[in-house]
Design goal:
With 453 residues, the protein is mostly beta strands. The protein is 4% helix and 40% strand. The longest helix has 17 residues. 19% of the residues are buried.
Length: 453
Amino acid sequence: MLRKIKRAAASLLAAIMAVGIVSFAPLPVSAEENAPTIIVSDAVGNVGETVEITISLADNPGVVTMRLFVSFDDTILQLTGVSDKGNLGAQYHPAIDNYQWPYTLYWENATLTENIMYSGEIAELSFEIISEGYSEISVSYDYDLYDILDKDFNKIFFETKSGSVTQPDCDCGECGCQDCFPPYGECGVCEICDPPVSHVTVAAFDSSWSAGPSSGSGNNVRGILNLSFTVTDSEGEKITLTEQVTGIAEGNNQTRAFVYAVGCDTLNVSVRFNATRSGSDLTYNNVVISYTSSTPWANVYTVAPTCLEDGYTVSKCGCGHSVIAVNAGSALGHDGSGADATCYEAKICARNNCGTELAPALGHTRGVAICTDIQECIRCDYLFEAELEHEWDEGTVTQPPTCVTEGVLTFSCLRDGCSATETEDIDVVVCIIDTTPLKAATCVEDGTGGIYC
């Protein structure tokens, strides 16, 4: 196990030195769970899209000045915008069209008499994804150069948590599954095809020290301090780490810092002590040994919940030992708030990228049938050809015939909504000749009579 730890430590140190963030300056360390932290968020997008990354503070102990350096892979990401959230006072961020990589975020309020205690979002950066691959986005600062100060000009220590921009369209090669994420720009870790291994972290820490022999005389006396650290990991295995600090001169508040890889964690140990000369010997007092440990997540890829499947987050340790998945939201169910089905189109789930058909296309529906008229669909402007014949009644005499003129017989369609009519002529009637006298003759008057109909 110790050989594995040493190999992991060597790999971690090489990776740190490769990106130029290694520092052996003594840093204050804390074993508190809620240590001050600068957090970079994550985003997922495809080439050509713009994503937003937020930078936040957690458990801010109070600051007036903060200078942060934002690093990213500029072959994959192009910085297109910076928005200050206005929560850390006066800001002096450079214009995005005139900056030197890494990008600098800078807040300075040296005249304030009270610290700014705000915890939450302090800036938002917009990036265009210009090529395929994975890019870590990290923040750093120089503790020794007083990049973060409080109102009394004390240096303030913050832990940092990197974020990333990943691309969802990842091809897992032979396994072909979609539950993968791209570590360091390559797709090769799949939670289904390559199940998670045990995630080993620091569970307990103990320490001891002893004084070694002194050498030299007068102001040139130098001493040795022997240190022993016992670490218990989350699987119950105990690991002993030893250090020998040599060349110690007389002086108070001396510090040393050590970094180890323990399983998936990075262990930071800080030693503070006073050395007092007595003759040709050094004695040590107020020896304080403290530590912090954290998992250096190198990659976090979140799959958002869909209508039918729960979401999850896949994280890969910086040491490469493990992959863990954590639920990131329950299945959402289909969203029926979109447009209703039409004659031509089905009703589709309104949630992005779902596309599930919730109701089929309705097809066209005739209106009330009106005999020989062209009919329009009741939902759209589609036209149906006529499909019915008129259904005539027995007819109504609308103009009786005479012996001189023909009559008219009018037929009406019996179907609802149809007002069509049709007429037929009625032949003239035959006259009946009547010769009966109208007035008989008398003694003094002639009678009258004639022929009439």
